[in-house]
Amino acid sequence: MNTTRPEPTTPDPSPAAADAGRVVLLTTSHRVAPGLLSWPAWQALRAADRVLCADGAHPQLPYLREAGTAVDEAAPTAEELVDACADGRTVVVVATGEGEPALTDGLARLAGSGRVRMPELELLPASYDLPGARLLDLVQVMDRIRAECPWSSRQTHQGLAKYGIEEAYELVEAIEEGDRDELREELGDVLLQVVFHARIAEEDPEAPFSIDDVAGGIVAKLIHRHPHVFGDETASTPEEVKEHWLRTKAVEKRRESVTDGIPLAQPGLALAAKLASRVRTAGLEVPLPQAPGIGYELLALAARAEAEGVDPEAALRAAARAYRDAVRAAEGVAK
């Protein structure tokens, strides 16, 4: 018995997929000025058969229309969008701030069904965040909290001061514990204190300033105190960098004493070490005061630690943690 094999089918020279068209989901960042789009984005917009946007108040629309791009204010379903791409048409969807989750979910369901001829799908970022752009979000969130939160709207610099101290100590603890996740969180908490105080300062009737003034001030200070980076000075060692810093700082502050500017309210060991550091750096010969009492003994220990390059506060905290662990062990409590 003769059997003949069926001839293999020949692929359609004009695949259906080629006629299904193309969907370009154009995303933009609200942290970048409207109208500043990438060149690939402008190319996609100019080549599109239709440009759609569900948000009639989208900040990009005036700039697109000014550039000659017609934009239809429409929020098509996934099925309607697929139909709009029939016969090889390209449709660009300018995404809203949420990123069009309903539309993309619908397209995914259609593609997964296997019953619909799907257009080519492309996600095209039209603008990118620069490093530090998320700080703008923090400023915006702080603005709203200050305006609408019953607790935050009543806070003052004086009332928040204690939280700044607490957050600083929690940051130090995260650093000493070596917990990276905790470190990231505590850095955020410290940053919140800065933004919160700056937001309160905007409302001062006599001497207001903003977070931009704070950032501008520290930028100017850093540039001025790093002439070896931004100027003509040279520095090849950390000691030379510190010398530049101290020299420019002395000119800025016009201090009469090496002790000027040292906060006396800081913890005692840190205060003693800071005083000893200033005296040593200035090349002064000032004997430590001698008197009976543990305070003078601690002063001498702090000065000795500073001279040996040891942070007495950190050293005491490390010893205290060891003592805490010993106590817990004696209690039978897990570390």
Structural write-up:
The protein has 335 residues and is of the alpha/beta class. It has helices at 16-19, 39-47, 61-66, 78-84, 101-113, 134-148, 157-177, 180-201, 211-224, 227-230, 238-253, 268-281, 294-307, 312-331, and strands spanning 22-27, 50-53, 72-73, 90-94, 120-125. The protein is built from 14 helices and five strands. The protein has a five-stranded parallel sheet with strand order 3-2-4-1-5, with helices on both faces. The chain starts with 15 loop residues before the first helix and ends with a helix.
Sequence stretches where pLDDT stays below 50 over 5 or more residues: 1-17
Structural class: alpha/beta
Question: Would you report the number of β strands?
Answer: 5
Q: What's the tally of helices?
A: 14
Element-by-element helix/strand order: HEHEHEHEHEHHHHHHHHH
Distance between the first and last residues' Cα: 84 Å
What is the 3D shape?
elongated
Mean model confidence by pLDDT: 89
Search tags:
335 residues; alpha/beta; 5-stranded parallel sheet
Task: Lay out the secondary structure.
Blueprint: H1 16-19, E1 22-27, H2 39-47, E2 50-53, H3 61-66, E3 72-73, H4 78-84, E4 90-94, H5 101-113, E5 120-125, H6 134-148, H7 157-177, H8 180-201, H9 211-224, H10 227-230, H11 238-253, H12 268-281, H13 294-307, H14 312-331
Parallel strand pairs: 1-4, 1-5, 2-3, 2-4
Helix pairs in contact: 6-8, 7-8, 12-13
